[in-house]
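Hi everyone,

Forwarding the result from last night's run.
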Amino acid sequence: MTHRLLMICALRSKRPVFPGDNGPDEGLSQSVRPSPPVLSADRIWCGPDAITRRSAAALGLDAKVRAELSEIDFGSWRGRTLDDVAGADPGGFQSWTTDPSQAAHGGESIEALLTRAKRWLAECERLPGRTIAVAPASVLKACMLHVFDAPARSFFCIDVEPLSSVVLSSDGRRWALRVTSEPRSEMSEVGRRQSKLRA
């Protein structure tokens, strides 16, 4: 069974802090204006946090919330800056940046996030047609690591820009990252929509 998954990275908070759901009034890294839908799929999902839901709405997507697409749980570090955490808990911060199994903040480890992403992709693999998913950068990174069968420590080697997108394709046996040049593909439509959102 073939499945095509378009993943779009959600916007971020203006404040450079460990992310968390600080409510619908949290400032976004870029201005957004709601637009009519330009994308279609058999199912459209998004993460439950306010910024991700607002990102999906700004893209004109009527998305259903899925808990599997949640931002990584940073526990007691939510809303705090890197410098603040590194200064207050240098040992915990160091362990988090070097050992994917550690969760010094009391929330979710990177390995736990990767397991969550793997399970969600396994579910998608059993579905026909196309899926669009708007999710935080951490979730996109976790899905890409699974596709490449890369070690968990590679999480810190990937940067995902807000509103960037990636297409993952499955034939029912394995996932592959798909690079497309189709002029009328959903990637082209997303690109046009993203350009308007960044304006």
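The chain has one domain: 3-72+110-198.

Cheers,
N.
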